[in-house]
C-alpha cells in the first residue's frame, strides 16, 4: 500500500466505480490531497474529488497507475515514471507530517525543556547532545545514552516520541542547517523555542521564539573575533529596550526589524521541499 510505498505497487481504493466508469487496463493519474477523519483520505482521480479508505496511511503526492480491477473495489498498480520519484514522495510525506509543537510537548513529558532566562552555550550544547538526533552515533561509539531522548523513548516504549524523533533526524539530514531542534519553553509567556545551527560556522546559532507581547523573535548569535555579535529581530520596534541592556564588555547587542525574508529563511519544511522538488497538492 502507499503507506509503505517502496517495493510495493498495488493500491486498493474502497470507492465505488460507478461514477468513474474505469475499465481494467485504463491508465489514470491520481493525487492524494489530505487526511480526513476515521482513516479516510481526500483524493483527486480523473478530475473528480473522492473520499477513499486506504489499508495503510498513504503518502501525499501525485501518481500514475494502471487499473487492474474494478470490482468489488478499485485496484490500481503504480507505473514506473510516476509524476514524482517515489522515494522523494516518501521523504516529503515524513517531513510534511512533522510537527514542532507535538515534539516539544513530548519532550516536556521527560523534562526536556529550556529556561529562556538561562540560555547559555553549555546549556544549548547539552540540549542538542541529548535531543535524540545523535542516538545511533552515541550507541555505535559507546557513549552515554542514559538521558538521550531517543533512548528514553525506546526504554519507555513511547511510540509517538520515537516516531517524531525519527522525523526530526530526517529533517536534520535533509535541511540546510547543521542542526535543528525544537524545545519547550519553561516560560508561559514564551512559546516553544527553535534552535538552528548553521552549516556555515561563521553564521553561528539562530534562535526563534514567539513572545506573547512582541510576537515572533529571531536571535542570531555569532563570534566575530573577540566579540560576540547578537542581533535581535522583531516586527515591533524594541530598539530602545535593546540599547539599554548591558550583558558584557565583549557582547554587541543590536536590534533589527524582522522582515518576511528572515522568517522564510527559517522555514525548514519549505526549504526541504524545494530541495526535493515540487510538493504537489491538488486543491
Give a verbal description of the structure:
- The chain is α+β, with helices and mostly antiparallel strands and 283 residues long.
- It folds into 2 domains: 2-84, no CATH class; 100-276, no CATH class.
- The chain is 28% helix and 31% strand.
- It is built from 9 helices and 13 strands.
- The chain has a 7-stranded mixed sheet with strand order 7-8-9-10-11-12-13, sandwiched between helices. It has a 6-stranded antiparallel sheet with strand order 1-6-5-2-3-4, with no helix packed on it.
- Strand 5 (61-69) and strand 6 form a beta hairpin.
- Helix 2 crosses helix 6 (159-174) and helix 5 packs antiparallel against helix 6 (159-174).
- The protein is elongated.
- Residues 1-8 and 278-283 have low confidence and may be disordered.
Which whole number gives the mean pLDDT? 80
Shape descriptor reads elongated
Ranges with pLDDT <50 over ≥5 residues?
A: 1-8, 278-283
Q: Report helical residue fraction.
A: 25-40%
Query: SSE order in H/E notation?
Result: EEEEEEHHEHHHHEEEEEHEHH
Query: How many DSSP H or I helices?
Result: 9
Which radius of gyration do the C-alpha atoms yield?
23 Å
Rounded to the nearest angstrom, the distance between the terminal CA atoms is: 23 Å
Strand order of the largest sheet: 7-8-9-10-11-12-13
Amino acid at each position: 500500500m502507499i503507506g509503505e510505498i517502496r517495493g510495493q505497487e498495488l493500491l486498493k481504493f474502497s470507492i465505488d466505480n460507478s461514477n468513474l466508469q474505469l475499465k481494467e487496463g485504463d491508465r489514470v493519474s491520481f493525487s492524494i490531497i489530505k487526511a480526513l477523519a476515521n482513516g479516510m483520505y481526500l483524493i483527486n482521480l480523473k478530475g473528480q474529488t473522492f473520499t477513499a479508505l486506504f489499508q495503510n496511511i498513504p503518502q501525499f503526492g501525485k501518481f500514475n497507475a494502471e487499473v487492474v480491477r474494478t470490482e468489488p473495489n478499485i485496484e490500481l498498480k503504480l507505473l514506473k515514471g510516476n509524476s514524482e520519484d517515489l522515494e522523494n514522495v516518501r521523504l516529503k510525506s515524513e517531513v510534511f507530517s512533522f510537527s514542532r509543537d507535538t515534539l516539544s510537548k513530548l519532550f516536556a513529558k521527560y523534562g526536556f525543556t529550556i529556561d529562556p532566562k538561562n540560555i547559555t552555550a553549555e546549556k544549548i550544547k547539552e540540549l542538542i547532545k541529548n535531543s535524540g538526533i545523535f542516538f545511533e552515533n552515541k550507541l555505535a561509539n559507546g557513549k552515554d545514552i542514559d538521558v538521550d531522548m531517543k533512548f528514553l523513548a525506546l526504554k519507555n516504549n513511547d511510540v509517538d516520541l520515537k516516531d517524531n524523533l525519527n522525523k526530526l533526524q530526517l529533517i536534520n539530514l535533509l535541511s540546510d542547517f547543521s542542526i535543528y531542534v525544537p524545545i519547550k519553553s519553561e516560560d508561559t509567556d514564551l512559546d516553544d523555542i527553535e534552535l538552528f545551527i548553521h552549516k556555515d560556522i561563521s553564521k553561528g546559532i539562530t534562535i526563534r521564539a514567539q513572545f506573547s507581547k512582541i510576537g515572533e523573535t529571531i536571535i542570531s548569535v555569532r563570534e566575530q573575533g573577540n566579540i560576540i555579535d547578537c542581533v535581535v529581530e522583531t516586527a515591533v520596534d524594541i530598539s530602545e529596550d535593546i540599547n539599554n541592556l548591558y550583558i558584557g564588555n565583549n557582547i554587541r547587542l543590536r536590534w533589527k526589524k524582522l522582515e518576511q525574508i528572515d522568517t522564510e529563511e527559517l522555514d525548514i519544511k519549505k526549504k526541504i521541499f524545494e530541495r526535493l522538488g515540487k510538493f504537489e497538492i491538488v486543491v
